[in-house]
User: Fold Tryptophanase from Youngiibacter multivorans.
Amino acid sequence: EQMPLEMHKVKIVQKLNLLPVEERLKAIQEAGSNTFLLQNRDVFMDMLTDSGVNAMSDRQQAAMMVADDSYAGSETFTRLSKVLKDIFGMDMFLPAHQGRACENIISQAMVKKGTFVPMNYHFTTTRAHINLNGGTVLELIADKGLETTSEEPFKGNMDLDRLKKSIQKVGKGNVAFVRMEAGTNLIGGQPFSLENLEGVSSICKENGISLVLDASLLADNLYFIKKREEAYKDSSIREITAKMASLCDIIYFSARKLGCARGGAILTRDKELFNRMKGLVTLYEGFLTYGGMSVREMEALTVGLEETMDEDMICQGPDFIQFMVNELKKRGVPVITPGGGLGCHINAMEFVNHIPQSEYPAGALASALFIAGGIRGMERGTVSEDRDADGNEKHADMELVRLALPRRVFTLSQVMYAVDRITWLYENREMIGGLEFTEEPAILRFFFGRLQEK
Ligand code: F0G
Assistant:
């Protein structure tokens, strides 16, 4: 078994605090047992997300100094457009301030009331925007994707039979678009294969339906294709990306995860669609040459996208995650396997199997892990679902605590510290009790909801 190796060195650091356990307990109580409500000064390892917190390279920082700040016609826009075209082969680009802003624009332009959007799996903000425009999400992940422990290399694959049947059932005219999410977030950062994407693409073409790729977690998915898909083991990352892009009609991404620390982009080759979305960008985001991003971020993104084509860069996330997964597995801790992108996912349903789903096992475990180690993870289970129209609780398919490994941020010894604290908590898991809401917002309740021990 290989140890992951940092293919970079540290140049700028941020001091961390490790509070005594009594203070950690107080902090999480004040945060309503919700890790989103913790103050970062109280956190030792911030494993909440990989969004906006990946490390930047020296070249990205340098590029930020040469940004061309003009409202219209900026050189920065031209540079970013050129790199996007080189990498993805799509010549039309709309900038936006982050991923969900792209989702707003795509949904407003393409989703009509009563239409359907088949996808491998939903993401929270994606589904919310589709629903807001009167559309319904159809989740068509292959059954293997929902098995918590497995050897399946591509758990993000769509079930192609179910896609064909769904299109027949609702009628192709009622399908707004088909969406594939790279590095499928909510099932553990799991990739799809290029073979699967080809299948999806040809079904879309047969039916005249647009294929939209959410490329926010593209970097991890690219690396997994290179490492796990036999047919592409000798292809370069750039070739794999070009092939992937050639199968899609629209690509959008959150640049908070891909390439930079802020921003978003929508790419297409379809002039008519581009024109429909253009007006919405001007209305919601900003002029077409910045779309809510600062030119500095756009320059960093330009360099970051180029760096994403470097295997030494994109291996960092997946290799460190796989290492953490292996170490936890060796110690008997229930984790999602195989390791995906984004982070290491702990299976709370098993870790705290004495807590029923009605008492939010993943929320309880995320809270306990902060007390045990000053580690901030994210609940990805029933708290992250909202109630249905009748106010009934919707139990999530999986109860996960996501421990993100922002790219190139943590060292191996910090990862080992996390492994040690999680193992200790597992050995003392009976101490963890279930939770109940004391304040429960109606929309995206996981962000600001407050809970207490039941
Ligand atoms: N799509 C995917 C797959 C994402 O993971 C995210 C964000 C978005 C869209 C929305 O992008 O945050 O820039 O508006 N995921 C973050 C996370 C929030 O922590 O998983 P955004």
Remarks:
- The mean pLDDT is 97.
- The longest helix spans residues 412-427.
- Residues 49, 51, 98-100, 123, 125-126, 181, 185, 214, 216-217, 254, 256, 264 surround F0G (CB under 6 Å).
- The domain at 58-310 is CATH 3.40.640.10 (Aspartate Aminotransferase; domain 2).
